[in-house]
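Appendix B, example 12.
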Amino acid sequence: MSIPESLRKFIDPVLVGTACAALVLLVGHYAVGLQSSRVEAYRKVELVSLGSLLQARLNEKLNRELYLTSGLKSYLIVRRGNLRPAEVQAILARLYADTRHIRVFGIAVGYRLTYIYPLKGNEQALGLNYRDLPAQWPAVKRVIDGGMPALLGPVDLLQGGSGLIYRVPVVVDGKYWGLLSTVIDVDPLLMDVFEVAHFVGVDAALRGRDGLGIRGEAFYGDSSLFSKPDVEQFVIKVPGGSWAMALRAKSAPSENYVSEILSAFIWALAAFVGWSAYMLRLQRARLTRLALSDALTGLPNRTQVEVRLRHAIAAGRRDASAVCIILFFDLDGFKAINDRYGHRAGDAVLRGVAERVLGTVREVDSVGRWGGDEFVALFENGAQEKIPDLVARVRNAVEVPLKHAGHSLKVGASIGTATAPEDGNSVAELVRIADKRMYEDKQARMLESRSRRPEDT
């Protein structure tokens, strides 16, 4: 049965109009739902990315300060309690010179705090017996009984202020001998870590005093943040326990408002989504650069260096002739420049060292900032016999004086090396060996320097 022409002329516009209206409504509802999901995904992705960045920054800064006591513990075990006070103080002074956030080092013989550096400002703590401190003794006893290091606090210090305390029990001949304590100035440390969060408009909080994780007390930020909606929570592993971190954007787009805008301006949907996608991509690219590059020097950061090192190790497994060499070095005298001329001068030194060391390597090689004043140079397809030349080139580059604000600033370099596969086939093994050799080099350079000094009269 044929449809009359007059009826067809009526039905066709109705069908087309209905179809277009249905399509517009469908696209509109889809766009509203898509926008609502996009806002939530945007918030989650940004917070997760920022959380990963903050965890990396915190671990980097804590590791930079805490590993210093490993050599001191070995020294105490070797001495087996036969300590020379002047020698102990000299070691503590050397360790302190390489720190940024450490407030004081302490050594307890038995349970009594016997050695402190620096002593000035900490006189009240010298000679204290931990068993006489009810606020600290339960946590200290837990570390001693467990026999494993732990990061405790923050606690209120007798000498004023608050600090994180890294406790390391020392066991000699199977028996408890004493306790190493590293007090970290907690407020500057956390301000340094979370400045990125404040800059991008994100509230942050930490809880887990004494490493108790989510069960522990809050010690940074607003503790109510953990119970608020739209919060992302993270677990941060610390020696002897964990902390919990909560992040929440200070403001977020109103889904209702965006829905109304989309409903009223369906015709602008493509432009709106395109602009939003552009902004999301731009923001994600910025956070990716923050996560993989060091903001001060522009070098690859620790995370990116580890990725490149893993790739180099994998290439070595495929090709036995490919030797991967890493140089792990830090800057001797850097803290003295910071203390004397300020952090701007220290930043200028770090940038200058990065630029000069980059000029000594091939385009296929990598130079990265490991953290603080520590750097890593990665040489792929290297040769064992070239290592002394590489070390000399890097050291000579570092030791070139830098002009800043009318001052001539000079630092040295303590350098440790490791090769794959000879020294190991994992990032952890190579870094551990290179780090150990770096400190051996540092000690050797210190002894050489002392031997060149004229004897005191």
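The chain has four domains: 5-65+253-292, 67-187, 200-249, 302-452. The chain has twelve helices and 15 strands.
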